[in-house]
Structure formats: C-alpha cells, structure tokens
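Complex 256.
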Amino acid sequence: MLAKRPKLGQHFLVDDDILNRIAAAVPENCGLAIEIGPGRGALTQRLSARSRQVVAIELDAELAAALPGRCGRSERLEVIRGDVLRVDLPGLIRTRTAQRAVVVGNLPYYITSPILRKVWAARDVCGQCVFLLQEEVADRIVAGPGSRDYGYLSCLARLCGVPQKLFIVPPDAFRPQPKVSSAVISMSIDSAPLADGLLDFLGDCFRAPRKMLRNNLCGRFAAEALAADPCGGLRAQQLSLEELTAMWRRLSARQE
Ligand code: SAM
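Predicted structure with S-adenosylmethionine bound:
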C-alpha cells in the first residue's frame, strides 16, 4: 500500500520555540503582514500579536474557514481563501496600506520557487520576506560564487537583497514530519526595479551550469563578441552577480 502523503504540502509546525523565533524575525508593530499558507494558525496568532494587520492566504477551504476561530476572531486578521499564486499581491497590498508589506510563511514546499519569484517580483510592495523552506533551497538562495549550491536562484535572490539563513528547523518540529531538513531565511527586499533583460540573461548563463558562458549564450550574442569577452571561457558558477551583470552590460553594449 502506498504511504499517505500530506496534501498541499501540509506540514504543520508544532514547536513553540521555532514558531516564536519565526515571528520574532518580523519587525514589531509591522503595518501589514501577509501570511502564505496559515494552516491551523499557529504562526498567524503570533503574527497578529506583532502586526497591525495580517492577511492570511490559504488554499484549503476547511482550514481557511476555521482560521478566524482559531485566532480568537482577531479584528487584525483577514483570511483570503485561495491559491497564493493566483492572488494579485501588489493590488492586495496597495488597497490595504501605503507601506510595503512583510511576507511570511511556512511555505508549501511543492510551490516554493514560484512563490519566491512572485514575492520578489512584487518588490515595490513587499519590503521583507521571512520564509521557512527546505534547507536545500535555503542553501541555494544564500550561496555565493564557487559554492556548489550557487546558481540562478542565488543570483535572483541577490538581485532582490541580501538573504540570510537564520536557523535550521529539524523534521520533528512538524506534524506530519517532512522527509527533509528545513531552514528559515529572511531578506529585506530592495525596491529598485530590475534592468530589463537581465533576468533572461542570467537564466541563459545558468541553463547548462557546466558549460562555458560563451556556449550558453551563443543564441543571444554574436560568437565574435563572446570569444572576445574576458569571461566567455568561464562558467556562470565562477562569477558573482556583479561580474555577470558587468558581462551582460559589455555584451549588450556591443550589440547597440
Ligand atoms: N503555517 C502553518 C504552520 O506553520 O503550521 C501551515 C504550513 S504548511 C507547510 C503549508 C500551508 O500552505 C498549508 O496550510 C496548505 O494548505 C497551504 N497551501 C498549500 N498550497 C497553497 C496555495 N497554493 N496557496 C495558499 N496556501 C496553500
């Protein structure tokens, strides 16, 4: 018989100390906290104590309906029943506050990457994120050049701010327990808009991480320009975000 798998990535935190430490990473008196996947509300209650407003987005209809009762029907709490990936995050935040929100969550691991991309893309309205996610993903987010974990996700994170891995969360802090170790990351998100085309360039740089950049980028720039570039014979993993960005500017300038 197949083992029963928790639906919707539902691994609930049951360790008070871990829950308190995650909540403590959110600034006290925070204007608006958006919680992704509140589940049974263990973190939501703590966020409500620190924030003037909490908007909790939960896909599971039963959990969403039970949440206000579990949180003492706090006036600070608003529950949205829906898929976080379909929510208009900038619209939601702008209609509730003029400030940038803090986005928090013990994330459903099956959609970690799209959630990260969505929150980091909403940089004009999201000022900070505090996420519990798989430790392996946390390591990729905070990795620097030369590390085996360094890649597109590390560069994407660095474009948005300086991510910090705060602490590790063992499987026994959850019910049911996940098979992997988890970690909490926090990041202040830079509001400056990204240069057009840079993300696509970085995606191409890391497409085949073992290949030299001139091979990964041959569909985008002339072979002559790539051969002349001082970094063309290197792999993306050897270069920092600043060096990759400088390469992109050099190659783009040659095309003009
Ligand atoms: N915050 C709770 C805790 O720490 O105990 C629950 C965290 S659990 C890892 C992830 C939560 O995300 C679950 O409650 C699950 O139902 C919810 N979820 C899964 N997919 C979702 C989605 N697409 N949009 C919003 N919530 C989702």
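The pocket of S-adenosylmethionine is lined by residues 8-13, 36-40, 42-43, 57-60, 63, 83-85, 106, 108, 111 (CB under 6 Å).
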